[in-house]
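Please complete every field before forwarding. Incomplete forms are returned to the sender.

SECTION A: IDENTIFIERS
Entry label: holo-391
Bound molecule: flavin-adenine dinucleotide
Molecule representation: SMILES string

SECTION B: INPUTS
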Amino acid sequence: MTALGLSAEDLEIQERARRFVDDELIPWEVHAEEHDGRIPEDERAKHQQLAKDLGLFAMNMPKDLGGGGFTMLQQVLVSEQIGRVTNALGWCVHTPPAWAPAVCTDEQLERWILPAVRGERHECYAITEEGAGSDVDAIESTARRDGDEYVLNGTKMHVTSYNTADWIFFQAKLAGGEHEGEHALFFVDKEAPGIRLLREPRYTHTYPDTHALVAFEDVRVPAGNLVGEEGDGMSFTHEWFRYERLMIAARCCGAMERLIEEATAFAKERVQFGRPIVEFQAIGHMLADSLTDLWASRLMTYELARGIDAGIDVKVQHAQCSIAKLYASEAAGRVADRAVQIFGGRGYMRENVAERFYRELRVDRIWEGTSEIQRNIVASQLAKRGVRDLV
Ligand SMILES: Cc1cc2nc3c(=O)[nH]c(=O)nc-3n(C[C@H](O)[C@H](O)[C@H](O)COP(=O)(O)OP(=O)(O)OC[C@H]3O[C@@H](n4cnc5c(N)ncnc54)[C@H](O)[C@@H]3O)c2cc1C
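SECTION C: PREDICTED COMPLEX
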């Protein structure tokens, strides 16, 4: 065991991911920023192939399905490195839904999950609607059983990666039948008749992936496209939330590390009033507060990952994933703000890493549950379980 209790294997994985990010991805950031988030197609394909060759792609999936079979701590270490790069260039290290193999039929595995593990076909998630954001239970999309099929209706928004996806996880409430009003999740191929792209609005970050508004109008899917059982829909979404919240915390740690390194290097080199600005206490304190934010976030995130690997209670995991996401995303926002300030006018230029992170990190306080929702989850678990059960 070495620094932060990482084993030699953990450190090797961390270093492998770090080298990939430093040598292959970071050099493309400014190009991506200047080209609507896009890089040349052959480079993009190269990144995806390298992610596979390095064993980082689908690191969360079981080895017998072709995934990396990484521990949660190892996944956190990789995600942290991915968090060091802007413009979603790190999304070439894709993680398909790890909950799927346990609940999917053989046919579902063959058609959707295994191609996702191989990087041949990609998914996107259509859960949020105009009237249902934080309150997922308010969704109005419906799934009505009709013989051997379900008929799906609804309009979804913020569907991330719709432009690159081949299939969609569509969440709806059951209309009619024994489970009327309960949630259900479906595999839906994007080419299914009745799916209509309404809009792909522009967002704050400069990513190649869009966040689409999509209408589903009498989309018919075979009954075999239902994930798990009728009424199971929310449990998969909760499992996905937990995982993504932890990985957001990890990526935020990586972003903080990069920002602090870059801002410190700049502050040591930038001379004003005859001295490097790092010698001004105002600048040094911003860096010190940022390092403190990083360390607290990192310790929390690693400890939680270890807890998950050790099999802590799922309700405790749920609360701790909210705590980690809340803390790390808010901390990363503070660190990015200070980094912009340290860079001065340069920090307001899109070619500057602090400017890009300042925009990009903002969404980490919104997606996969806003900071307010994370606080609600933590407060409710605290009231039920008490302090000693939770931290
Ligand atoms: C870039 C981006 C990508 C996304 N990708 C996807 C995706 O791929 N698939 C998908 O399904 N969704 C996606 N989302 C949706 C995302 O999960 C929601 O935006 C998020 O859950 C918040 O919902 P909302 O935007 O409707 O805000 P609202 O729920 O309308 O909230 C508005 C404000 O009210 C606050 N609020 C709401 N309820 C409470 C409460 N009970 N207590 C205190 N405050 C409250 C919120 O915290 C927020 O500040 C994405 C969003 C963004 C911005």
